[in-house]
Design a protein that fits this description.
Number of helices: 10
Oligomer: single chain
Strand order of the largest sheet: 5-7-6
Number of domains: 2
Length: 189
Amino acid sequence: MSEPAAVSTPRGSALLGLLAGEDRLKAFAALVLGARSTDEVVARTGLPARSALNALTRLEAGGLVARSGDTWMAQRAPLQDAVAAAAGEAPDSAPADAPPQEAAVFRAFVRDGRISALPASRAKRLILLDYVARTFEPGVRYPERDVDATLRTFHDDHASLRRYLVDEGLLSRERGEYWRTGGTVLGPP
C-alpha cells in the first residue's frame, strides 16, 4: 500500500514534521483550543515556559502559528491547503459543499488559499466575506490585532477586508474588540 499523498508532498511533509514533535503538537493544540499567550500555552500543556516558547517559535517559522505582539494564533490555512493538495484539489478551490455559483467565485478570486482581489460585485464579495467570517468563533471577542493577523492570511489589504466584514454585519466592533455577528454557522462534521 502506498503512502498518503500528504506525506509525499514537500509542504505536507514539512507540516507533519512540525506537528510530529510532542511539544509542538501540544502547543499547537493549545492554540487551537483558545490559548493566546505563551503563559496560557504553558498552563494548558504543562510544558516548561522555555519549551513552550521554542515550540511556538518553530511553529511560527513553519507557518502554522502567527504572532502579533504577545498574542499567538494557530493558522489553519496551511493545513487545509496541504489536505487539498493531497486530495488532488487546487488549494484555491471552493469548500467541497459549495454550490456551483459560489465555487465559480472562489475559482475567480482565490489563489493559493488567499483572496487575490475583492470582487466589485457585492453578491460575489459576500460569498468570500462569509467564508472569511467562518474563521471567527461565534461568541468569542477578539482584539483588533488578532483579527488583523487572521485577515492577513486571507488578503494583503486586511483593513479593507475588516471594514467590509463590519459593514456587512458579519463582525461587530466596540472599543478595539471584534466578535462575529453574522454569516453561515456550520454544524458539527
